[in-house]
Amino acid sequence: MGSTNLESNKLEMYELGPCEDAFQMGFLIGQRFSKLIHSRLSTDLILQDQLLPFAQLPNSQHFIHTLSETNKNKFPNYWNELKGIAQGSGVSFLNILLLNFRKEILPFIPKTKDYPKEEDINDDCSDILVVNDSMAVVAHNEDANVALVGHTYLVKVTLSNGTTFTAYTYAGELPSCAFGFNNHGVAFTLNSVPPCEEEILAGAIGRNFVSRDLLEASSIEDALARIHSSEASVGHSYNLIDTRTRRILNVETASRNRISVHEIGETPFFHANMYLHLQVKQAQDENSLSRQTRASSLSKESKSDFLALLGDMNNEKYPIYMKGPLLYTLCTAVVDLDEKILTIIEGNPKEKQVSYVFSLS
Fold first, then answer.
1. Is 14 exposed, middle or buried (0-12, 13-18, 19+ CB in 10 A)?
2. Rounded to an integer, what distance in angstroms lies between the CA atom of residue 168 and that of residue 170?
3. Chain centroid offset of residue 59 CA
4. How sure is the predictor about 283, in pLDDT bands with cuts at 50, 70 and 90?
5. Residue 334's beta-bridge partner residues?
6. Residues 172 and 349 sit within 8 Å (Cβ to Cβ)
7. Contact partners, residue 239, CB within 8 Å, separation at least 6
8. CA 235, CA 245: separation in Å to the nearest integer?
9. What sequence ranges are listed for the domain Peptidase C45 hydrolase (predicted)?
10. What is d(CA 272, CA 190) in angstroms, rounded to the nearest whole number?
């Protein structure tokens, strides 16, 4: 019931910068969205029932310390940004840390009958992408655990070096584990992928830090270089978009710097939450398999077709457009490289209820 009330609140955008430093930037964001961050912390059962208890175990201390030190050393500015978010919102740094490292920690929490496997509660997103003579489009469903409903916002940040980025952000997390774009013509959407546990490198770089870094990429080549050098702990799928050269790349990654790049062309490419071209042992994900199969049967000739596909609820158990009880489609983002706009749709994308339109030129 509470989520319905939250859902009715319009997605808020906060513009800030240039700031004195990364800490001040995080502080201002944390201060502005303190209420949302506190609300998320109190209602996020994965944090309360799994991450926090795990963090208190004596044998978890070294693991979390290693994870922290690795990320702090590679990305000191983003680490300070996190500290600013914690101080600005008035919540403990441990809570903010656990939210941002949930993907790197959850696979190592012992599973019990009380808690489902991590892949059963995984964030699930769907993307449909194409570059042909008539259109160049990325359409993305931002799916997450139902605890995130009403706990997201947009930030538009100007950095001291002149870079400006806009990012859809989960309360308490670095921008952005979802999608974003900057004034260099670079945009991205993200899909989680479920590698098996032996494919995960404990204590390496967190995915939230990698995607935060992409917001500052000066080109699609620079974005690829940042992913290449990321030394990530857990795999991820990145849809990199270059509005200046009309290119879209799907980049699948795994730990130990494994990477596969697929250039999007005239055949529409649907990506759920499974590896499609990087050879990695992955957890079986019935949700993704179902969405992948359903998408293959639907029309993909126009942008309207893409929105209809992302709004499809044909499969009751595993719909492409999700309405709970565990997973929920928070919004749909559509990047049109020819019109050079990013549109955010709240509600079923078939109904085209646009809440924001951003220029990418």
1. middle
2. 7
3. 29
4. confident
5. 139, 343
6. no
7. 127, 129, 138, 140, 188, 189, 190, 191, 248, 249, 250, 251, 271
8. 27
9. 133-350
10. 10
